From TrEMBL:
This is BRWD1 protein. Residues 239-267 are annotated as: Disordered. It comes from Atlantisia rogersi (Inaccessible Island rail). GO terms for biological process: cytoskeleton organization; regulation of cell shape; regulation of transcription by RNA polymerase II. Residues 249-261 have a biased composition (Polar residues). GO terms for cellular component: nucleus. InterPro entries: Bromo_WD_repeat (IPR052060), WD40/YVTN_repeat-like_dom_sf (IPR015943), WD40_repeat_CS (IPR019775), WD40_repeat_dom_sf (IPR036322), WD40_rpt (IPR001680). PROSITE patterns: WD_REPEATS_1 (PS00678), WD_REPEATS_2 (PS50082), WD_REPEATS_REGION (PS50294). WD repeats lie at residues 1-39, 40-82. Keywords: Repeat, WD repeat. SUPFAM superfamilies: WD40 repeat-like (SSF50978). It comes from the Eukaryota.
Length: 267
């Protein structure tokens, strides 16, 4: 097999360069002389993550598709810490990205199964206030393009960035309690009744019907026929005005005689 470099990173003070090779080795080089200093052995698959410590020039982090995360002392060529991303019942999860915090006390990784892994010193109590599974209910909603090639949410026909703040749900689409909904930017100061999503039954790709969040209305507002929010009302009004303008433009275009020149445009 011909060796190929898959990733390269300089250490914090630029004295060393670390390269990841497709034979699963990491190589540490002197950046001034080009001399090979160390071969770092431990990974069992290709490595696409090399992250240098923000202030400690000795430390380099590596992670790869084998689920391994290593912290290395590249001056000595030794392994300082190792973590294997084993997922119960599913084998290991490939690690796609890692970043250090600015103070160097923590680092976070994301894997192929949608997990966010947070490592660091100290107590994990601050992280216990949030549920294990956190998704926005709009994360996997399909998008479409309109006649102007603009992207719209398929269900609401609204631009995604103009939609109200999404709800937090678990992996099955079930909404979390209201105390978690306030963690979403834009919902911090909402009353409890505005933090209860509208549920409905949605057919999945395999034909199974499941109950999921389908809208932004609350149950009370839906029964009373009120606007879900001021923002929703503004979006609906803007959409109506745009539809009216589009209709007027098409009407004026259709009134212009063609005179047999060219092919008329499709509306």
């Amino acid at each position: 097999m011909k060796p190929k470099v898959t990733m390269i990173a300089w250490n914090q003070n630029d004295n060393y360069v670390v390269t990841a090779v497709n034979n699963h080795l990491l190589k540490v080089w002197n950046s001034s002389t080009g001399q090979l200093l160390h071969d770092l052995v431990g990974h069992a698959d290709e490595v696409f993550v090399l992250e240098t410590h923000p202030f400690d020039s000795r430390i380099m982090l590596s992670a790869g598709h084998d689920g391994n995360i290593f912290i290395w002392d590249i001056t000595k060529g030794t392994k300082t810490k190792h973590y294997f991303n084993m997922i119960e019942g599913q084998g290991h999860g490939a690690v796609f990205d890692c970043k250090f915090s600015p103070d160097g006390q923590h680092f976070a990784c994301t894997d192929s199964h949608g997990h966010l892994l947070i490592f660091g010193f100290g107590c994990s109590r601050p992280y216990e206030k949030i549920p294990d599974q956190m998704f926005f209910h709009t994360d996997y909603r399909p998008l479409i393009r309109d006649s102007n090639n603009y992207v719209l949410d398929e269900q609401t026909q609204q631009a995604p960035h103009l939609m109200p703040p999404p709800f937090l749900v678990d992996v099955d689409g079930n909404p979390h309690p209201t105390k978690y909904q306030r963690l979403v930017p834009g919902r911090e100061n909402c009353a409890d009744e505005h933090l209860i999503p509208q549920l409905g039954y949605v057919a999945t790709s395999d034909g199974e019907v499941v109950e999921q969040v389908i809208g932004q209305q609350t149950v009370d507002q839906d029964e009373q026929g009120l606007e879900p929010s001021i923002l929703d009302g503004m979006i609906r009004q803007l959409q109506l005005e745009q539809d009216q303008r589009t209709g007027a433009d098409q009407e004026s275009a259709s009134s212009v005689p063609n005179n047999g020149e060219g092919t008329p445009r499709r509306g």
